[in-house]
Design brief:
Distance between the termini: 40 Å
CATH architecture: Beta Barrel
CATH class: Mainly Beta
CATH superfamily: Nucleic acid-binding proteins
Radius of gyration: 17 Å
Number of helices: 3
Largest sheet: 5 strands, mixed, barrel
Strand order of the largest sheet: 1-2-3-5-4
Order of helices and strands: HHHEEEEE
């Protein structure tokens, strides 16, 4: 009986841990159908493959192995090339920054983890 209670408690704790973990969306799914994700919050994870910024804002490109997407960060700074990041934000289409245009971009809305 005691073992059952411990097992049940372990499952409950594991469930709470899973609820706190964001679900990652593959970049390939976003780029395949950006209209489906437009205006929605998603989390992507991967390595930073390119970046540029000024005065605390900037853009950086994430590669998750399925594709790449540019991320605009207005409040959280720009990570260095090669950094492994997970980013949560809203998908937008038709975005410009620093004289460059981006068809689909992830606008960062939460601190990185």
């Amino acid at each position: 009986m005691h073992a059952r209670k411990l097992l049940l408690a372990a499952f409950v704790i594991f469930g709470f841990v899973l609820v706190g973990c964001p679900t990652h969306t593959s970049i390939a799914n976003i780029t395949r159908d950006p209209g489906h994700f437009a205006g929605k919050d998603v989390t992507v994870a991967g390595h930073v493959s390119d970046s540029f910024g000024a005065l605390g804002a900037g853009v950086f490109q994430i590669d998750d192995g399925t594709g790449t997407i540019w991320v605009y960060s207005g409040s959280y700074g720009v990570p260095s090339n090669g950094a492994k990041v997970a980013v949560t934000g809203r998908i937008e289409q038709g975005f410009s920054f620093g004289g460059r245009s981006f068809a689909t971009i992830l606008r960062e809305t939460q601190p990185r983890h």
